[in-house]
Write a structure and sequence with these properties.
By secondary structure, the chain is mainly alpha-helical. It has helices spanning about 15-20, 25-40, 45, 145-180, 180-195, 200-210, 215-245, 250-260, 265-270, 275-300, 310-315, 320-325, 330-355; strands at about 70, 75-85, 90-100, 105, 105-115, 115-120, 125.
């Protein structure tokens, strides 16, 4: 009897991509963290115990309230928080005579789940007049945890909007310019030079003055990002043009042309995929750039403004020396969120660059 030979697993691009990607633990961890962050942003109203602009005028700069399970007598009480009373110099004392058990799925501020289903159920909360501040309260008594969740909807979305517009235009126009050359190349490249000559800072300030004052700040910022994205495609298009110039004489491109493939099909199906490695890295760098740009715009007063929340205006509210020395939770919460997001995009982008590189050999274990 001959020993049985294990059947080799059939090769496919998707399976080979996953084999390459999982060889980088940092890339897998970064991708998993991004999935968690965007899921949290999607369900932010449900995960937040309060409304975005809910103000408690009796609890300015309230410190984080620790979640307890055992009372002062050592008896098990389940998850609860103690009440607090204000002291001198904006300090708070624990009132052990008041215990507020943690409730799951309590009723609270109304919202639309996923923007569609009206409801007032939240993941957790405590009965009034108790308050639970997982990350403390800000200078107006608003829950930092709640604002961090709502702020993620703005800060994580603007990057996707920006790259969706700018990279789509940059890839297509850069590919067309490099493939056809001639007057088409001249027209597109002179347009990119014109757009690159426009100073972005002055354009931002001018655009902010054009929008009506009653327009919500989130919509104003998204409109600015969308307009700037139409300008931001220029630098990407120049790089893609240079890559296409070196790819259009490749054998597989000439073979596709000989088989009668249209110019658009050759560009989209055979040339642009070979620029994917650079594009992925550029996109993962651009998304954190939009997030950090939101901080800069908020500082100038043209970004998202209170009472709407974003990670940028949360950082701006914590810029004073008094907050940094006495109420560090106001700075740490948005700062750590931005840091984790930027690192996750960078790690995931590096892993995607390696996994999607068309020149990389298939991982052993598959069959061509």
């Amino acid at each position: 009897m001959t020993p049985s030979v294990p059947e080799l697993e059939a090769w496919s691009p998707a399976r080979d991509f996953w084999r390459h990607l999982r060889r980088s633990p940092l890339a897998v961890a970064g991708g998993a963290l991004l999935v968690v962050l965007y899921t949290v942003a999607l369900f932010a109203p449900f995960l937040a115990p309060y409304a975005e602009s809910d103000i408690d005028r009796d609890r300015f700069f309230h410190p984080p309230t620790p979640l307890r399970f055992v009372d002062e007598h050592g008896q098990w009480r389940g998850p609860f928080v103690y009440g607090t009373r204000a002291g001198a110099d904006q300090s708070y004392e624990v009132d052990r005579s008041q215990r507020y058990p943690l409730r799951l799925f309590p009723r609270g501020a109304r919202y639309r789940l996923l923007g569609l289903v009206p409801t007032d159920r939240h993941l957790f909360g405590v009965d009034r007049p108790g308050r639970i501040f997982l990350l403390g309260a800000d200078d107006t008594g608003r829950d930092v945890w709640t604002r961090l969740l709502y702020g993620s909807q703005v800060s994580l979305t603007v990057g996707l909007v920006g790259i969706a517009i700018s990279f789509s235009l940059g890839l297509l126009l850069g590919g067309v310019s490099g493939y056809f050359g001639g007057w088409v190349d001249t027209l597109i490249m002179r347009s990119t030079e014109l757009l690159l000559s426009i100073p972005g800072l002055y354009l931002i300030v001018a655009l902010r003055g054009v929008f009506p004052l009653e327009l919500p700040s989130q919509q104003t910022y998204l409109a600015i990002v969308a307009i700037l994205s139409f300008i931001g495609w220029a630098s990407l298009a120049r790089v893609i043009r240079g890559m296409v110039l070196s790819l259009r004489q490749a054998e597989y491109v000439l073979a596709a042309q000989a088989m009668g493939a249209s110019s658009l099909r050759v560009i989209v199906r055979h040339i642009l995929p070979n620029t994917l490695s650079f594009t992925i890295v550029a996109a993962t760098v651009a998304v954190p750039g939009y997030i950090l740009g939101e901080v800069f715009l908020s500082f100038l007063g043209v970004g998202v403004q209170p009472p709407a929340a974003s990670w940028g205006n949360m950082l701006i509210a914590a810029r004073s020396e008094r907050v940094l020395t006495s109420f560090p939770w106001m700075l740490l919460a948005p700062g750590v969120a931005i840091l984790l997001t930027v690192m996750a995009f960078n790690f995931f982008g590096d892993g995607l660059r390696d996994a999607l590189d068309p020149r990389k050999a298939p991982v052993a274990g598959g069959r061509l």
